[in-house]
Amino acid sequence: xxxxxxxxxxxxxxxxxxxxxxxxxxxxxxxxxxxxxxxxxxxxxxxxxxxxxxxxxxxxxxxxxxxxxxxxxxxxxxxxxxxxx
Length: 85
What we know:
Layout: E1 5-9, H1 11-17, E2 21-24, E3 31-32, H2 33-43, H3 48-53, E4 55-58, E5 61-62, E6 69-70, E7 75-79
Parallel strand pairs: 1-7
Antiparallel strand pairs: 1-2, 3-6, 4-5, 4-7
């Protein structure tokens, strides 16, 4: 059985979902990063606005193309804009 995608949520993404990590099942061939983001937005409606402005990262590398496939066992991180001072 394939391993789920490990979804890491930071800052406002973590607040919207209520936890810092999810295990998300995807097909064995994977799905485009944009489709995974859409699935997450449907499952967690409060996350949708944050996803629109977030940097998406697969296995430590920023996702530059929305059709890049996320496969079982990958790490998919959602990094909203950060502030601080």
